[in-house]
Amino acid sequence: MEWEETLIYDNALREEKDVQDWVEEGAIKRSFSGGLILENALSEKLGDYAHWTFWIPQEFPSDIKIEWKFKPLREPGLCMVFFAAKGKNNQSIFSEALQRRTGYYPQYHHGDLNAYHLSYFRHKYETERAFRTCNLRKSYGFHFAAQGADPLPPVEDALEFYKVKLIKFQNRITFYINDLKLLDWIDEGKNGKPLNSGMVGFRQMAPMKAIYKDLKIYALKKKDG
């Protein structure tokens, strides 16, 4: 299906002012050198409590295309993107009525949120590194939705930035890296109605270190006729 695109968010991610209004959940160490470098600021000994989520403080429409450039710098670790995120009663994820989140993963899939979440660099555990996939899930709950192969190499072989593209149009979600389609899934409402508008956020599992740049988000509209 063809659509019209309108750029609604454009962030180079090159300096502190670019993310000064983003919402940090958990402790993030960030720096800038040709892009936004993100890693955890807490000791890895804290395990699942050392991870974090970083939200764009803006609600996006239901039909969107998200693009960014990504390069892994240190592993093991995992990188994930949340989208269509809202509170359990359709309120903002920043509503004071919701429980406070600190980056601990169960707060995101069995807390007060509904969201899609896609893990696209799954190099945290030995089993993930042995057979590399991208996994799409839907919450509330930890519902497995779809899986695709992960072409991203380990850090020592990552010689360039990779172009990541995620499209949510109506109830269909597609995911690409360097324009290679990896995942294509239609939400038929098996675990609740398809999710619509909401927030976008990025997540890393410690001790992952990665660099991001050139984030763009487009609103999509079905072409007339």
UniProtKB/TrEMBL annotation:
It comes from the Bacteria. InterPro entries: ConA-like_dom_sf (IPR013320), DUF1961 (IPR015305). Pfam families: DUF1961. This is DUF1961 family protein. It comes from Jeotgalibaca ciconiae. The lineage of its organism: Bacteria, Bacillati, Bacillota, Bacilli, Lactobacillales.
